[in-house]
Amino acid sequence: MNKVVLITGATRGIGKQIALTFAKEGYDVALNYIKDGEELNSAVDEVKAFNVECLPIQGDVSKYEDCERMTKEVIEKFERIDVLVNNAGITKDMLLLRMKPEDFSQVIDVNLVGTFNMTKNVSQYMMKQRSGRIISLASVVGISGNAGQANYSASKAGIIGFTKSVAKELASRNILVNAVAPGFIKTNMTEVLKDEVKSSIIDSIPLKREGTAQDVANVIKFLASEDSSYITGQVINIDGGMVM
Ligand code: NAP
Question: First vs last Cα of the chain: how many Å apart?
Answer without folding.
Answer: 41
